[in-house]
Amino acid sequence: xxxxxxxxxxxGDEGKGKIIxxxxxxxDYVIRFHGGNNAGHTVINKFGKxxxxxxxxxxxxxxxxxxxxxGVIIDLQVLLEEIEMLKKxxxxxxxxxxxxxxxxxxxxxxxxxxxxxxxxxxxNKTGTTGRGIGPTYSDKVSYNGIRMVDxxxxxxxxxKLKVQLLIKNKILKTLGAKQLSQKNIEKxxxxxxxKIKSHVREPFSLIQNAIKNKQNILLxxxxxxxxxxxxxxxxxxxxxxxxxxGINAGAGIPVNKIDNIIGITKAYTTRVGEGPFPTELxxxxxxxxxxVGGEFGATTGRPxxxxxxxxxxxKFACYINEFTQLAITKLDVLDSFPEIKICTHYTxxxxxxNYFDGDxxxxxxxKPIYKTLKGWNKPTKGITKYKDLPLPAKQYLKEIExxxxxxxxxxxxxxxxxxxxxx
Length: 423
Ligand code: IMP
Description:
Elements: E1 3-8, H1 16-23, E2 29-32, E3 41-45, E4 48-52, E5 65-68, E6 73-74, H2 76-88, E7 97-99, E8 104-105, H3 108-121, H4 133-141, H5 148-152, H6 154-174, H7 182-196, H8 204-212, E9 217-220, H9 246-251, E10 260-266, E11 269-271, H10 284-293, E12 305-307, E13 309-310, H11 311-321, E14 325-329, E15 339-348, E16 351-353, H12 360-363, E17 367-374, H13 391-404, E18 408-412, E19 420-422
Parallel strand pairs: 1-9, 1-10, 2-5, 2-9, 5-7, 6-8, 10-14, 13-15, 14-18
Antiparallel strand pairs: 3-4, 11-12, 15-16, 15-17, 18-19
Helix pairs in contact: 3-4
Bound molecules: inosinic acid.
């Protein structure tokens, strides 16, 4: 397998956790390189059902080491809760979970600012997960962040926090929010420091050696291509680079070391939060997709918006990420649909247009053009061999391959680890 990257090809929630869990069985390292606990990767295995927000999904495999790379932002309360939960399930973490000292911390004021910004934007809000993601990344970029390395050094943490509270309390006051106390935050974070410090270690040489020794490395993308801060549907995006290239800045790995880039897409499309969604179905079909697919956020529990598969967007994701293979998830959700539509392209005023031609208001004007395919009306749930799929399901998958020109390598037919077809 060598060095593989898993990237969401849509607006997140593509089922990356399941594919990563499956692939990490043969991985020496699983590394996260961006995002924070806005991600929620659901993993079902012999230990139970888990929604992991920060710890890379490879943690369940006894020989796999996991790294939270420097591009990830960390809410220590959430990370420590996750660590506790894993320890309760007797999952070993010592010498197995490494956290980069360069990771920025999500501070209490970041979460407050996230909700205050949303409130101020009113009906134009982004619909964030409320986890403080945008404000933490903006502090990182404007050199106001507090990092894991600062937490470990009590004096540095105290000094940096003092400056930040001077600024942040002024903003909070202006926006009518409560003031934060240095003493309280320091007390809470002192406790965090003791619990987390054994895991904080610069992973750069660990990763370099693993690459040199041709060990198997899996990079775990979070969110999805269309939530990328630059190439997504801005401002309805997240704060990080969600694309393949993000592994360079977010984990210190040169992109030319990559062997496989696996794009994950559902067999249909979903989105949480606000923003354009050309193939959204605000009708009974959309409702059925949500119910059958269990489309409620793993992080916030919000109902997801649902629609048909959008090939125009998938083609863009294939190109910008240079996917070498695709994994199609939740094929079984389509089992009971008499017909299945696939959006092949967009038009505007009768002319063919592309996703990247315009901004969000442009995307709300374009017309998605569909091709209708026959449904299979047969259960595919749990199928593990391609030859056992009904013919119309095979035709649907062929159509996706032909339109995107990328080979489908994995087809997920249920939430469990072994409900998967490998081609
Ligand atoms: P934030 O990342 O919490 O700032 O939210 C920004 C946008 O990204 C919102 O539309 C969220 O719903 C969306 N988002 C963030 N993380 C995820 C995810 O893991 N899956 C799906 N959507 C997400």
